[in-house]
Amino acid sequence: PDTGILVDLSAEATAEESGPDTGNLIDLSAATDSLEDIVSHLQQVPLFSGLAHEELRWLGQKVQVHNFAEGSSVAQGRNMRQSLFVILHGQVGLKIEYFRDKQHPLHVTLETGDFLGEHAFFRQDDISFSAITKTACTIAEIPKVAFALLSKKYTSISDSLKQTYKQRCFPPMLACMPLFSNLTDHERQDIAKHFFTMNVRKGNIIITE
After folding, report:
1. Cα separation of 161 and 11, whole Å?
2. Is the model's pLDDT at 14 over the cut of 50?
3. Are strands 101-110 and 127-133 parallel, antiparallel or unpaired?
4. pLDDT for 151-166, tens place per residue?
5. 136 to 79, 83, 112, 159: CA distances (angstroms)
6. Where are the alpha helices (DSSP H) in the chain?
7. What separation in angstroms does the CA of 134 have from each of 44, 79, 122, 202?
8. Measured in whole angstroms, how far is the alpha carbon of residue 168 from the centre of its chain?
9. Taking the CB of the first residue and of the last residue of the chain, which one, N or C, has fewer CB atoms within 10 A?
10. d(CA 26, CA 117)
């Protein structure tokens, strides 16, 4: 079987592959930042620390930058647009739920330089998220195709996305499993980093003794 988390970054991915939408992205108002302003912000994002200046300029031309007032909904549901959202300035409250058990959502406060929406790049239909701004925010939306090009060239970017996915999306799923149901939220977050997924086709042998 194919081991490791499978990142679905093909440009041909469709809404059907991600499952039915359970929430719509709101109509965002684009900010008026200049390209150099956007590049300056992107330089401060740890996810892009390995990019050269010209690559950051290329990325700056691909992103859409949006301004949000405090208390605004950035995105919710299953992120059908399959974009990655990077916080250039401000704080965002993120809630991640596992559809089969909404009693144990994961709550995270994201700061400047953090990102969200990573679960849409993986073959996981049972995760839903809600992102609400805690302060006025400037957020860059990176289209799937642009992000795919970067992740293919820089494995550190793809690896960071996988690790963040595990830390955020695994705990809500673990909460509904009897083996881990008695653990605290913090304990589930701690052990989630030790898990990996396997993509197994029907009829494949998972383990033999």
Report:
1. 17
2. no
3. unpaired
4. 888 888 888 888 887 7
5. 21, 21, 11, 30
6. 15-18, 35-42, 53-62, 144-153, 155-174, 185-192
7. 20, 20, 27, 44
8. 9
9. C
10. 14
172 contacts 98 by C-beta, under 8 angstroms: yes
Tokens 């559809």 locate to 99
Q: Is the pLDDT of residue 15 over 70?
A: no
Q: Which pTM value belongs to this model? A: 0.70
Does residue 28 contact residue 141 with C-beta atoms inside 8 Å? yes
Largest CA distance in the chain: 61
Mean pLDDT of 98-125: 77
Cβ of 30: how many Cβ atoms within 10 Å? Answer: 10
What's the chain's Rg over C-alpha atoms? 17
H helix or E strand, kind and range, residue 131? strand 127-133
Structure tokens at 27: 């109509």
Q: For the residues of 153-185, what is the DSSP string, one character each?
A: H-HHHHHHHHHHHHHHHHHHHHTTSTTTTTS-H
Cα dihedral across residues 143, 145, 149, 152: positive or negative: positive
- Name which residue leads in pLDDT, 144 or 125: 144
